[in-house]
Amino acid sequence: MAGGFVGYSRSPGSRTVVRVVVAGDRGTGKSSLIAAAASESFQENVPSVLPPTRLPADFFPDHVPVTLIDTSSSLENRGKLNEELKRADAIVLTYACDQPLTLSHLCSHWLHELRRLEVKVPVIVVGCKLDLRDENNQMSLEQVMSPIMQKFREIETCIECSAATMIQVPEAFYYAQKAVLHPTSPLFDQENQCLRERCARALRRIFVLCDHDMDGALNDVELNEFQVKCFNAPLQPDEIVVVKRVVHEKIPAGVNQLGLTLTGFLFLHALFIEKGRIETTWAVLRKFGYDDDLKLRDDFFPVPSKRAPDQSVELTSEAMEFLSGVFRLFDTDDDGALQPTELDELFCTAPESPWDGAPYKDATERTARGDISLNAFLSQGCKRTLLLREIPEDGAKKFLSNQEFLAACDVAVFVYDSSDEKSWKSTKELLLNVARHGEESGYGVPSLLISAKDDLDPHPVAIRDSLKVSQKLGIEAPIPLSMKLSNPHNIFGRIISAAEHPHLGIPETETGRKRKQYQQLFNRSLIYVSIGAAVTVVGLAGYRAYAANRSTSN
């Protein structure tokens, strides 16, 4: 059947070239395979290891070129081999069809070596020298490779070829390229033979977008619109009939009197993948904005750009009202809250529910039954929650080297162990660095000191010095905190207060204070000079008027 659901669309994603490394035992035909693919003919005298070989874009339906890397299996070249394997986009492992031991060694050594090196790219197993295989060997490729592929799931495809007779030589590298451009793993769970959850969610979203009349099925018109959007060609009426018949025969719930249901839509894509037509499903996903990780691409989210580093973006009142409407739509029992099942239904077309991860999983306002309230639901959209970013001590220098680092920071909180003098000294040094950085960059930031582990005996130097430093910098005295003895909620209130009144907590070093005083003095001098100049001008004008009057009177 031709057309849409089995049509082909060139959508290789963001790849501009595919790097394929060819490895295997000596004498299994690696170099001959590469030479035959590049020249489209059998080469008698081939070097033991070929230089990198490029197959041009017009060799492949996706129009993406492939670079073939030949390798040596000798011990002295093992380091270079491992390096190439780690750089590969895909790996072709070869064995010789006339040497069964090379296939055994491929399983016992090469596949295990890839796992040892933690190389996680598609593997294509290629049996070379098919023309030399013993004619008495009647075992099919499927019989030989099926148990091997069950054990090594990283194997995407197995193929036999002959460089001497040019049997399936281009196909070996086509499958390698295809495994990179249209990978199976993100879409299909081969062990359980089903679509992966993330893929099913993406296809569910596409189905909903194409179901314009929202009746839960794609009618013939909607199917054709989907077909044209993804493959630039309409389905013929008899093709639509065949599609529906195939689905109904395998899964009756996939078709009803209205058209193709979501169940049938998902079944079709699982069928394409099982039949080796995974590029069809990838074409659909990419047309609707998905990248290779099944996330919607950035160009599908026109987020307003920030004009300044410390600027934030919030939803409009119209957007908040829209979200409120979505909440009410999925609150099927009208209890003013979303139960887990209602929340799952709301986000069934998203890659995952945002409420399953931090910070919303544990910090969201919930009802007595544990459901999500409307305020909690809207809080994620408005983004008016406190954001904390912990910066490790050894990473502070990296951030401070960025002149605009502090611009996006509303409050800097310095936490130290009050019982440890060394902890305080490190914190003091960091605080002074941040203060100096703020003065030099013009991005001064309110700062708070938190004296943690207040339940332990405080170090006398830390107590004395911390009070002295806070007074010297003009910031609030250290806030004592014990997670064992007190509730930390008050701390967060203090942080918010510091953000609301930033001018009260920006640290000021002695150097910065002098610079500020000098600037103020300089500004006053400019004012005095300006006033003096004005007086002088007025005086000159008065004198000239007086002189003119005097001349007239004379």
UniProtKB/TrEMBL annotation:
It is found in: Mitochondrion outer membrane. The keyword Repeat applies. GO terms for molecular function: calcium ion binding; GTP binding; GTPase activity. One of its GO terms (biological process) is mitochondrion organization. Pfam families: EF_assoc_2, Ras. This is Mitochondrial Rho GTPase. Residues 15-182 form the Miro domain. GO terms for cellular component: mitochondrial outer membrane. It comes from Juglans regia (English walnut). Keywords: Calcium, GTP-binding, Hydrolase, Membrane, Metal-binding, Mitochondrion, Mitochondrion outer membrane, Nucleotide-binding, Repeat, Transmembrane, Transmembrane helix.
